[in-house]
Amino acid sequence: MVSKGTLAAIVIVIIAIGGVGAYVILYNPFGPQPNPHDVAVVFATGGLGDKSFNDGCKAGLDQAVADFGISYIYAEPTAIADYEGFIRGFAQHQGYADPYDLIICIGFDQEVALQTVANESTDQKFAIVDMFIDPIVYPNVASLLFDEHEGSALVGAIAGLMTTTDKLGFVGGLDIPLINKFAAGYFFGANYTNHYIDGDNITIAYTNDWVDTTAGQTLADGMYDAGADIIFAAAGRSGLGVFDSVKDKNTTSEIPLWCIGVDSPQMYYGTADPENPESPTLCLTSMLKRVDVAVYTIIEDWVEDGTWKTGYDLLYAFNLANNGVGYEVNTDLLTLPSSVITAVEAFKALIVAGTITVPDAIYWT
Question: Which of 36, 105, 182, 268 fits as disulfide partner to 128, beta carbons 3.0 to 4.6 Å?
Fold first, then answer.
């Protein structure tokens, strides 16, 4: 027996069909509604506002909104343990009658959570940034991967040419293969342009956190005090502490001190007022990891064009050859010597041609 409340919630729509007849649609406005969003996103634990990785991904999402008219919803987990719940919640799309076209997981540490949910929701399409997930085992998951070591080699080459002390530093988020790809490329590139940059003249340390800017600043303070004059930070929001350090240390340093940004263009953040950036900046360049392009590309392929690849074509590779990684140039804030740019571009050409192979793991002892 149907209650009055239930009947009141049902709207009966009768649509005539060319004088032949009619059919009835029962629509319950209090039941599952059409999904207003095309894409759901689970960001990395560093959260939005990191000025690099998460913010770069959001830039790609926003560009897809502008170009394709899509809509997206997102979650900002604060711990790895939160990932699975957010991914599963989006996959189950509770309250919505239809699923999301795509769920994007931002960050390598969502691997296990994504695999678990992808096994449960085999009809749902997923993508993950920064982690290889076997597309033969998980044909509903696309992996967006980067050759970070190649881009890092270019900023390292710049550091090797611009250093005064021949001592360089690197601040990473965690001591893991992904972050060490940045360090390996950086010091390789520096040694390529400056043979004094060897194991005795480099310092590497980790914040062991993606959001602790104080840890980033403390590590950078120690490196600058020990003689390093250029530090490359690949530590998420924690890396912003290196910018705080270089600004502070330059007030008393007898030589120019610099930092190098990561993922997104960060040269503006090295100015006195990042909200209104004006020359000069203390950020020489940034290693550009085009996560914005990666996110935009998978949305364009699947959500906009309806093209879901199969097999190992689901592995999207972004490198120097396709401009998926690179380095920032912002002459409004800092003009590097033309000789530096010439040398770096020549180095880049050799890498793209395969003449030089950049190591993707720590190679010094």
Answer: 105
Confidence (pLDDT) at 30: 65
* pLDDT tens-digit series, residues 272-305: 999 999 999 999 999 999 999 999 999 999 999 9
Q: Residue ranges per domain, the chain?
A: 39-146+293-318, 148-289+335-353
Determine the topology of domain 39-146+293-318 in CATH.
Rossmann fold (3.40.50)
The CATH number that domain 148-289+335-353 falls under is 3.40.50.2300
Provide the whole-model pTM. Answer: 0.88
- In the chain, pLDDT over 70 holds for what percent of residues? 92
Would the CATH topology of 39-146+293-318 be identical to that of 148-289+335-353?
A: yes
3-state secondary structure the chain: CCCHHHHHCCEEEEEEECCCEEEEEEECCCCCECCCCCEEEECCCCCCCCCCHHHHHHHHHHHHHHHHCCCEEEECCCCHHHHHHHHHHHHHCCCECCCCCEEEEECHHHHHHHHHHHHHCCCCCEEEECCCCCCCCCCCEEEEEECHHHHHHHHHHHHHHHCCCCCEEEEECCCCHHHHHHHHHHHHHHHHHCCCCCHHHEEEEECCCCCCHHHHHHHHHHHHHCCCCEEEEECHHHHHHHHHHHHHHCCCCCCCCEEEEEECCCHHHHCCCCCCCCCCCCEEEEEEECHHHHHHHHHHHHHHCCCCCCHHHHEEEECCCCCCEEECCCCCCCCCCHHHHHHHHHHHHHHHHCCCCCCCCCCCC
